[in-house]
Amino acid sequence: MRQVKTRQAAGESPVLNAPYSREALEALLARYGSPLLVVDCNVIRERYKALSEALPRVELHYALKPLPEDGVVRALAAVGASFDLATSGEVSLVKAAGISPDRCIHTHPIKKDSDIRDALRFGVRTFVVDNEDEIGKFVKHRTRAELLLRLSFPNPAAGADLSRKFGCTPGEASALLNLAARLGIKVRGLSFHVGSQVPDAAAHAHAVDACNEVLVEGRRTGAHPLDVLDIGGGFPTYSDGSEGERIGPFCAPIRAAIARLPQGIHVIAEPGRFLVGASAFCLTTVVGRSKRQGRWWYYLDDGVYGSFSGQIFDNTKYPIDSLKADEARFPSTLTGPTCDSIDIVREDILLPELEAGDVLMARAMGAYTSACATDFNFVPRARVLTVNQ
Ligand SMILES: Cc1ncc(COP(=O)(O)O)c(C=O)c1O
Predict the structure, then answer these.
(1) pTM here?
(2) Which among 29, 139, 345, 387 would be 20 to 30 A from 40, CA to CA?
(3) How far away, in angstroms, is 232 Cα from ligand 1 center?
(4) pLDDT tens string 76-93
């Protein structure tokens, strides 16, 4: 039988006070089982507030993909967030959470007609395109949909350079805007994503300035009176969770570039990782151990096919430690539960001597972790528990 992720019952969200005591964590495991991914909505609300203050007057649409969880959507909705959707599954999630479609945009540049129709049926109006064929898909929906044109700004410095896959060049923009106008399709503005986990905001600022030129030219000729600029996501997290304090200075070049835009441009953003990355920790239990070439190998109930999938897909390493109080530590290896030899969570990690039943905690595991987990080997995925909702 296919194993599915167990979700908590609607409305059930325990209160958990940070810093979390060992007793509190063990109580969670006793109640909800292992492995467990605990998502703390207090952290998400703090990050939302920090980014709102760093980018005043920018409308923040949480990009669901890093952590598509009902409790996260509800917590963010309650503090005023809007949402960025990319699939029909994400449409269903926000709909079930009672989110108004007026607060949602659909930003996948390449869509099936069924994706477009599902989003339209829910009530979403704004979609993203980046080429002629995709614009053509909106001819039959032109009375109900309006578009953002996505531009590419290649950024090898990003953890994931999304412009390799999506976006037209700034030079192609005017021909695509003209095509949409000829087809009677309304284009409201421009969008970009300078890549996920960027080292600084130089790429954002450059992209805002490049879009500024397209916006000014469209307005000057009167051909394309665009009034929306979507600056995407990419805002980084750090393994020590310091992104909340660092986001203000980080965004300074973006604020300056936004201040150079013509009057009346409504700016929106699609943060994902930044809002949720620090919010979650994973509790995983030692299932068995083996001494190999003089070193302990610990076999856990979660691994790179599960919550640690971000080590493969997102090139991220998470801080991991044992719940055992400080004791003598030895170089050790942590592996996941599947039979695959790439399912190794960490080599050369200093740990106390562990045995079956001992628990490890990995932090900064909110973004692109459980979202990318698989059911390989029928190993059950970690249960996701939202606390402090
Ligand atoms: C269209 C779009 N918007 C937003 C995001 C979120 O990006 P990040 O998590 O870097 O903020 C992504 C990530 O892939 C994306 O593809």
Answers:
(1) 0.95
(2) 345
(3) 7
(4) 999 999 999 999 999 999
